[in-house]
Amino acid sequence: MPKMLSSIWKRRLIDLNSKKIKWSPSQKDAIFTKYREDGKSCNLLVSAAAGSGKTAVLVQRIIEKLIPEDLSKSIDANKLLVVTFTNAAAHEMAERIKKSLDENLLYAKRSGDILRQKLIKKQQLLILDSEITTIDAFCMRLIRKHFNVLNIAPDFLVADEAQAELLADDAMEELFSELYEENSREFTDLLLMYASNRSDTGLQNLIKQIYDFIIKIPDSFLWLFKNTEALRLENGIKNTPWYKKMQDMGKSELSYALSMSEEALGFIFSGGDTETMVLQNPPEKGNPIYDEWKAYYSVFYTYYAELKSICAKDGENQAKALSAFTLPQLRRNDALSDVDKDYLKSLGERIKGAVTSAKALLCIDEEKFLQLSREKLYPTATALYKITERFSEKFYEKKAAKNMFEFSDIEQLAYTLLSQNPDISGEIKAQYEEVLMDEYQDTSLLQEAIFSYVTNGSNLFCVGDMKQSIYRFRSSDPTIFKARLDRSSFDKKSTDRKIILSQNFRSRKEVLDSINDIFSAIMSENAGEIDYDEGQRLYVGNDTYQDTGFDLKSECVIIDSDSQSDEENEDLSEITLEARFIAEEIARLKGNHFKIQDKYGLRDIKNRDIVILMSSYKKSADIFTAELNARGIDCFAELDGYFERNEIRLMLALFKVISNPYADIPLISVLRSPICAFSDDELASIRKCKKGRFFSALKEFIALKNSGLLTDSEDIKTAKKAENFCKKLNRWRDYARYMPSDRLVWTLYEETDFYAFCGALYEGGEAQANLRLLFERAKQYESYGFRGLFGFIKYIERVEKRKKDMTSARLIGENHDVVRIMTIHKSKGLEFPVVFIAGGGRDFIRKLDSTKFIMHKDYGITLDYINFEENYTVISPLREFYSKISKAEQTSEDIRKLYVAMTRAKEKLYFVASAKNPKIAKLEGGKFSFDYVLSSKNFCELVFPVAKFSENWTIKNISADSLKLVSESEGKDSENYSKEIPNAAKLLEFTYPYADSALLPSKVSVSDLKINEATQIITKPGFLNEGKVSGAGYGTVIHTVLERLVPKKNMDFEYVKSCISELVLQEKLSKEEAELVNPNKILAFYRSDIGRRILESEKVFREQPFEVLVPLNLIYPDAKNAENEQIILQGIIDCWFIEGDEIVLVDYKTDSFSDISEIHEKYDRQLELYAYALHKMTEKNIKSKNIYLFSANSVVQCQ
User: Global pTM?
Assistant: First the structure.
């Protein structure tokens, strides 16, 4: 490169992020480090904290390799392997790299650097074919390239879980047929041990469980074989992989029990050195402490003395002493307060649990265990191993016959290819100059094994954060990251180097300080599997945040659900209380114009700035949605209830009827649906003609009509309707015999007109999208070589049973102004200005091994011995050990999940929990003990004890009553209702007095009650209006603008115009709709007397939905026997505001009128009902009812 051009480039080099990011020293090291100090290449692990810019660093490292300052050191794009975990992440990374190359090319042209231009153009071509991919895609490409070595077809398909499960069932059924024919003693014994409900499904499920576990481990059956053989315990128990760990855990349980007894005595002594106080105060009468606490003191004195003695021993002596130790029971002491008794009782229970656990871990009878394991457990495990291996072979054959594999198969095939073919793995190692892995903390054992054959030992760059590893349930193994982190060094001479990125560029200092306080106390090597030390803390990296004038300290909100007063009829659930608080807090933030900082500066908070996070929201989403919507807050929760959607349930019922018309429930569902529109009376008439299956009655009813035996005109009509349905059903059943299921699905949509019908419903677009999803699933089903409607029904039932395969259609984008409700797992990788963590008081779901066969990747297998002849079970002596391991791993995962949730917040963090007397625990050396963390039942028990004493958290205690809305129906005197039971004659002569009322609706909308609008106006469908907006449509547009626009005093034409443009960007208005709005009309409204009063009011409510109970006579004055009847009135009030302590009601109208009397005649009643509803909801007087006419820029006051 000419010197002049090189100097220009050095001075003016730009890249993807240089204008935006000033790289920190650690980030620069992560970007540029390739070699050791001696010039040799090295592996590099980047431990990147949340918000540390790891993706930007990874992209910039790639750019520096493609177009470095020294062009001679450039690496071709196809010499890099970049691996991440999702297709979306891979796509985003590729787009970032392309964008950076484009920017660099532009500047190279401006600077006249011909050589650099040439290199960038070359890299732009190579990047199109480079490997920026997921692990699964990499493995897929690898085995397709070498299909001949693996003896598979190169055009295989990827099976989804439901398809694979159908094939697994087929394989299992075939295997068990063979096993029943063989009738071996081994198989018979296994059946008797593991059969459930006189069925072999228990054994089948166990075999699938074993298979599902080992298939994600490299050398799956070798692992199972070795661990089965290990049950022979040829070298005794002390040389097993679990013995030392189990001993350490047992001693830890003893230490915890001792510390709890010390805590109890410290509480009794009210301070002082426990050991000294114990020596000075024997548990005898006459001792003041004993006389006050009596048996409580004796028990904890004994606990302390015995446990201290046991802890001082070791080995067999300790085990013997522990085995002989019997825990004395706490006796009643009525002289103590309930609070003191409850506290000491809880400590006693924890001591008892720890001692029981320690006995299980330390007091194993080695001789008995050796005999049990060798004579009973080993033969059973061997038999299970053999059957599982046969199942695996048959399952693979089934998949190969269909030319489809699961992702686990693809990874296993890739591992087999690389591990058994050194020439192929050598070729791949030589292909890549560097292998870059993103989200390394989510790597599984099998994936790590695969990439050990892809890297050359010193060319791996991996980035991740173990504190964000939350996918263990998907087989990711955070200990892989931890092991590499431990063996890597900061030493620049090391082959395995590490760099820590601890600066957070996402969040404000207030958020980071509060997070550091929590995890410094709860995250450790044992709880979280990594110590939250100085290297793992979060440090402020973003110094551009401005002062907003608002309180940004994180808040820990504790809602006392027990504080609901007995007099209240409304008993709100904990979920409802949390939802109501969060909804009210969001409304408060918006009402107070809480400021958020974006790239343009400070602005008012919007719905889309807020997220509500929960571990799971399946049972909570509807409640949160209702509470938010009640306050006019738009929200969105992506639910998995696809099969609960009405349109899907109906179509699946129709499929079942076509497959088997004698299935009564699906048949009646279809007949009552819009597809057939049979009334209940019509179905009753059909039912009366014949007992048995409903389809038989249907055919009999048609036969009666054809034979002339039906005389009632309505019955004849019903029979014709039934006959028409049967003709269609026969035609559809004919279709099902030859038509592919996807084509049949769409044909049914068309012939029933159901797809078009759904489009006319409220939220019909979403319903149609769900139907299209069903069609696509049928298409996919057929593409895998499956055929027929019956098979498709079975497949869908399998998908539904798994409850995790299909999600309802999503008609919402990132720019929609809605509060997101999502799980913590789905929030990973996202960020939001304001985060609410809800459900903090909900107990963790612990999936402890209840199965009789337990597996662990590090410690092997164990199982219970089942003696079916004498009908007893010997619980494995190792079950307590495995349960403790499982609980510790799940607790660690929960702690990391809490970390992920909290680190999503940029500017304000809320932790919300419904809790009854939340625990307060002591910190030991700045941390909770591992045993305390392990015993915690929910997030609240981890967060509250820290937040309570932290200056970086605000504690808010909220009573349930303060969140309750007292309904109008409360206080009814139940004695007003008659308690007399009428005699039989009166019952028989009874005439329903409210027959007229029964014909009236139970709910009515205000808009349905407009006077003088009886004449129905038939308009053309929307698609025939050629893009024009109707008068009603214009009114909707104006309402949208007035609802969404944020008014301010002295606003001008340009401000209103810019707000309308913003609504277009937010997809609240179309361009055509926006063009209809005259900003001057909006300005005229706010410059009118009523508009100025709105601007001056501190409390303004727009587009306020309501539902209230009102007297039936208020709506229907002529209704008979309606004196005590009520009806639900619903509607949406355009605008109302508080003036003084009264309400001013405003309704917008875009109609044109020739006379003011028309306005009163048409709308006075409507506003009267709005006023009634507002008064009932707020108990405030209505000062005035106003209609603003946009056609005349004037206000009309209603009577």
Answer: 0.73
